[in-house]
Write a structure and sequence with these properties.
about 300 residues, alpha/beta, Rossmann fold, 3-stranded parallel β-sheet, 11 helices, binds guanine
């Protein structure tokens, strides 16, 4: 029997812990501040940014969203980031990705003060993660690790395969699992015999961004499956393929004209797993919870250290 790994429940617990940490700081007159920067009008990014803002405020964090038009010149964004770097009320800065194409994302991420890097995307923090040193860690993989540990999924000595090699998920995920003594392989679109390699995994993390890509023939019976994908599908044929006989999904699709599917095929991959993260309600809520925790940690790091340190 497959059982779900409940990202919603774990994210609630983390958010409560953050809220209590924020309250302790508030008692000392310190209020953590998060600045979110959104450039352009990508609807998915707008939804994510709104949820991040709401969650921050619920935890007692002061949140400010800076919105800019899609044709913003790179120099103007650099100036905005530099102002946030200098602003003492801002402890954490998040620039929502993707950025419009006239802007070099790497240059913007490098401009964020590494001590205010809410996402852990700055090369200094990526390097610290590589070396296993304390640093803010990208929120999605950090959230997945929390979920696996809190749900008692064994990692030491297990074989883990991470499908996807992005800087945001795949690479940091692999490093975090390695830090927990898993034996880790990063696979990607050019990997030979991808299904065969994935079938060796005790823990399979799918972070490719293609709906239902990981089918049952990728999954060893009893493996743990982490589905990072959030893909909106709009065709009835896809709904029939991914959710056969699921009247609730079909009704929701008829109401909304779309539904969410991860990178795993729920019809064939999930039933083979011992435990899996559903979509929605698996990995998604954890990303926001870990953003709040990173904000709290950055605030503590910047404001509680002695001036001589
Ligand atoms: N776009 C998609 N995921 C993320 C994320 O974790 N952080 C930022 N900044 N942008 C994203």
């Amino acid at each position: 029997m497959s059982r779900i790994l409940d990202g919603t429940a774990v994210s609630k617990a983390i958010r409560a812990e953050v809220a209590s940490g924020v309250a302790s700081l508030a008692a000392r007159g310190i209020v953590p501040g998060l600045a979110v920067v959104l450039v352009g009008d990508d609807p998915a990014s707008a939804v994510y940014v709104a949820s991040k803002g709401t969650a921050a405020r619920e935890a007692g964090i002061t949140e400010r969203t800076l919105r800019f038009p899609a044709d913003l010149p790179e120099s103007a964004l650099l100036t905005a980031v530099e102002e946030l770097n200098r602003d003492d009320t801002v402890d954490a800065i998040l620039v929502q990705l993707p950025l419009p194409k006239q802007i070099d994302s790497a240059r913007i991420l490098r401009a964020i003060d590494p001590r205010k890097d809410a996402d852990g995307f700055h090369p200094v923090n990526a390097g610290l993660l590589l070396q296993g040193k304390p640093a803010p860690v990208p929120c999605t993989p950090a959230g997945i690790l929390e979920l696996l540990e809190r749900e008692g999924v064994p990692l030491r000595g297990t074989r883990a395969v991470v499908v996807g090699r992005s800087d945001i998920v795949g690479k940091p995920m692999a490093l975090l699992l390695l830090r927990r003594d898993a034996t880790v392989t990063i696979a990607h679109s050019k990997t030979r015999d991808l299904p065969g390699l994935c079938r060796e995994a005790d823990l399979l993390v799918a972070a490719i961004g293609r709906p239902g890509f990981v089918t049952g023939d990728f999954v060893k019976e009893g493996a743990v499956l982490v589905d990072v994908g959030i893909n909106r599908v709009t065709s009835r044929a896809d709904v029939e393929r991914f959710f056969p006989g699921d009247a609730k999904r079909r009704a929701a699709f008829d109401r909304n004209g779309s539904t969410l599917v991860g990178d795993c095929d729920p019809a064939t991959a999930f039933p083979r797993a011992s435990r899996y993260t559903p979509v929605p309600g698996g990995v998604g809520p954890l990303t926001i919870a870990l953003l709040l925790r990173n904000t709290l940690e950055l605030c503590r790091g910047r404001r509680l250290v002695a001036p001589s340190e």
